[in-house]
Design a protein that fits this description.
5-stranded parallel sheet; about 180 residues; globular; alpha/beta; 5 helices; single chain
Length: about 180
């Protein structure tokens, strides 16, 4: 990985994505920002952020939805990214109750499309702003064992003695000075 390799930042027009992208650009890195400019948050605010980023010559922007499998495959075929910072997601738990399919499309299918894009090219680092939406507890960092590129590492068990348990009876002070 060299400083000339572009970094893909998904959700680049969002609050966190904008600041991550700007910081990378200020450090001289080449960044391709990706966002679908979803109207859940004010699009004018997102466009204003992108306008600030467009002042950097090493910034490129792609407007596409990470849930669009064909568009994501085309992006990863056309460009090579050694680093992907995945920050795009459908925000808002309340919105997920109103439109659960949009939430699943962006957060599950979109994340899968990012993973597949990274798998099909020599992406060395994938940084995600949130754990995968599996509903299972994840222990970070996740590293595949040397014997398999796909298997999950064994999860360590937490010994019972390290778990907090309230005491049933308060400890009494000795009146004799002896324990």
């Amino acid at each position: 990985m060299t400083d000339a390799d572009p970094i893909l930042v998904t959700g680049a027009a969002g609050f966190i994505g904008f600041h991550v992208t700007r910081r990378l650009l200020e450090r001289g890195r080449s960044v391709v920002g990706l966002d679908n400019l979803d109207p859940y948050y004010d699009v004018r605010l997102k466009e204003a952020r992108l306008k600030q980023l467009s002042g950097f010559s090493s910034f490129g922007f792609e407007r596409l939805d990470i849930a669009d499998r064909a568009a994501m495959a085309a992006l990863f075929s056309a460009r090579r990214f050694s680093v992907v910072v995945h920050l795009a997601a459908q925000a808002g738990v309340r919105h997920s109750l109103v439109d659960p399919h949009a939430y699943v499309d962006a957060n599950v299918a979109g994340f899968l499309n990012v993973l597949e894009g990274c798998r099909r090219q020599p992406c060395r680092h994938l940084v995600s702003g949130r754990p995968p939406p599996t509903g299972l507890p994840i222990r970070w960092p996740i590293a595949p064992p040397a014997s398999s590129a796909c298997a999950m590492p064994p999860q360590p068990r937490i010994p019972l003695r390290t778990r907090w348990r309230p005491r049933r009876k308060p400890r009494r002070e000795s009146t004799t000075g002896c324990a």
